[in-house]
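subagent[fold] <- orchestrator: predict structure for attached chain, return tokens only, no commentary.
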Amino acid sequence: LKVNCIKFLMDGTLASGSDDKQIFIWNLTTFNYIVTINPASTDHILSLEETPQGYLVSGSEKADGDIKLWHPKNGSLYFTLTNPYNNVGVNCLKMINSTHLASGLQKGSYSNGHIVIWNVLTKTQAGVISQHTDNVNIFDLLSNGLLASGSNDRTVKIWNMTTFTKVQDFNPFFNSIFCLKHLTGSNIMAIGGADISLYFWNVPNTPFSATFYNIAFNLISSQPCQNMLYYKNRVLASATNGKDILLINVTSELVMA
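subagent[fold] -> orchestrator:
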């Protein structure tokens, strides 16, 4: 069944979550799975993250919707963070510092696409951000500690993670956003989604001090972008719905723009 998320872990293994409602931990030398986690979930695994303390974190589709912390060595459950919104899935997870986890939620019958912040040490909810109006699909951290989020509401929003307040938002294109990747060593963010182009935006180091601009690359594929990886500060890999993986050489002129 479809693999929805992967996460490289600190011990050199790889975790994957899929529509089969399970999580596998893989040995990347033998390419065999070494641990199977069966969350007893009633729905698909949508998102994975790892805490600095070494716990694997998973988020599920709406029939479950809770966030679970696991011991990746043996697959045992450590703790469950109960989703405060009923029948809402967890599309994305991101550690924003050593103690706090951001979870991006789907839109539900009683909620917009909320971002819920958790303290993984105290196992308590630390805050809720509710300014997206549809599913929150993706997070990425910027070099200045701000959090970027992308949504089906067609916006990218930038958040101050100390105050949990919005710094700025913008509409890069008129489609849902599934991919965000800050290009290390620059002020550039790559953005992709339900559009046949990738967009590169200048993100200011200090809020409101610069305007956003975009440079668009038309993809060879006519399919939407689903995931992105920035490799060695030079090559941007983009995976699409059309079963393509595209490698884009991000030039020094773009990075320095």
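orchestrator: received. Logging for downstream: Residues 17 and 23 are 5 Å apart (CA to CA). Residues 206-214 have pLDDT under 50 and may be disordered.
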